[in-house]
Specification:
With 351 residues, the chain is mainly α. The protein folds into two domains: 280 residues, Orthogonal Bundle (Hypothetical protein af1432); 63 residues, no CATH class. It has 16 helices and no strands. Helix 4 runs antiparallel to helix 5, helix 6 runs parallel beside helix 13 and helix 6 packs antiparallel against helix 15. The radius of gyration is 21 Å and the shape is globular.
């Protein structure tokens, strides 16, 4: 018996009957010899960390607040790590597959643009303006990254269950329902990341907004703090503990009604007071939006400036070229996007 087989046997003996077992995975698009040491989900986690350049670039992509020169503001990478930590805690407590949960968490935002959701909205708008019927959504792009873009177009050949969790992790702006159902997600581990993503961002975005001086804890309605807690760590713990307690032994994940309602109200507060205010963060977001849209337009209209394209890609029909350009722009870090914009539009000697 190999170490992997022993681990798979331990999973079968110790995990919940609701868990997705590595030995029962639907496999990979391209069949591979199993690793003697790691399960398929452990292998996927390692591939994302070690083989995906897009994972390393997350360190220089905006999570919520653009720039600002503050070293303690979250980046897309620290957000990913917080989602992973929350996900692993929930998975272990519910005796679900922690390795699968971690792999989905680490891959869930690989397709995000520079400048956070401002960049995502800008690239989506630029694609729509082509009239080609194309859209940009980061969760779809995340799957495209691992399937088609990493390793010079070969992809990293992840397991079906990890790919499914990455593709369908997004909850958009809807409230968290007492039962967050999604028929497209095939594992409870995938559902964990949906919850973990929301728990992470409503709490750390509030923390960052306070640090950036955009809002203050005194602005948060008292009824939210009475349920979730007065401090960041307490609020995260309240959400996680409630999710675990309410979901134990259940075929779906849920929060209790009071905690779920308070978490939803905190999300509404953030949209009203932080995300859509047009206040201190507004000018930065408008500039970021303009940079992303202009880079996309430039590369589409002036192929000679798109040095990242191969001759074959330059000869693609408009739809194919638009997707190549979107892939390139989406993969940029914040600072690389700014550098590219300056190189194209700022005269020499002015920076």
């Amino acid at each position: 018996m190999t170490i992997r087989e022993r681990t798979e046997a331990i999973e079968r003996e110790t995990l919940s009957e609701l868990a997705c077992l590595a030995a029962d995975s639907r496999g990979r698009a391209v069949e591979e010899e199993p690793c003697e040491v790691r399960t398929c989900f452990q292998r996927d986690r390692d591939r994302i960390i070690h083989a995906c350049k897009s994972f390393r670039r997350l360190a220089y992509k905006t999570q919520c607040f653009i720039g600002g020169g503050q070293d303690h503001i979250r980046t897309r990478l620290t957000h990913t790590l917080e989602v992973s930590q929350i996900g692993r805690t929930v998975a272990r407590a519910l005796r679900l597959n922690e390795d699968l949960t971690e792999a989905i968490a680490l891959g869930h935002d690989l397709g995000h643009t520079p400048f956070g959701h401002a960049g995502e909205n800008a690239l989506d708008k630029a694609l729509k303006e082509t009239g080609l019927g194309l859209r940009f959504e980061h969760h779809v792009q995340s799957l495209r990254v691992v399937d088609e873009l990493e390793k010079d177009g070969r992809g990293v050949n992840l397991s079906f269950e990890v790919r499914n969790g990455v593709r369908y992790h997004r909850k958009r702006q809807q409230d968290l329902a007492p039962v967050m159902a999604d028929s497209n997600l095939i594992t409870l581990e995938g559902h964990i990341i949906k919850w973990a993503d929301r728990i992470a961002y409503i709490n750390h975005d509030l923390d960052d907004a306070i640090r950036a001086g955009i809002t203050d804890i005194s602005d948060v309605p008292r009824r939210i703090l009475e349920v979730l807690g007065d401090r960041h760590s307490v609020r995260v713990n309240t959400c996680v503990a409630d999710l675990v307690q309410s979901s134990t032994g259940q075929p779906v994940l849920r929060m209790s009604e009071p905690v779920c309602a308070a978490a939803n109200e905190l999300k509404h507060f953030l949209f009203a007071r932080v995300y859509r205010t047009g206040g201190r963060a507004g000018p930065q977001e408008r500039r970021a939006h303009a940079i992303v849209r202009q880079l996309f337009r430039c590369f589409m209209e002036n192929p000679k400036d798109a040095q990242f394209m191969t001759p074959a890609q330059r000869r693609l029909p408009d739809e194919g070229r638009a997707r190549v350009v979107a892939d390139y722009v989406a993969g940029m870090t914040d600072r690389f996007a700014c550098a590219q914009f300056a190189e194209l539009y700022v005269p020499d000697g002015y920076l």
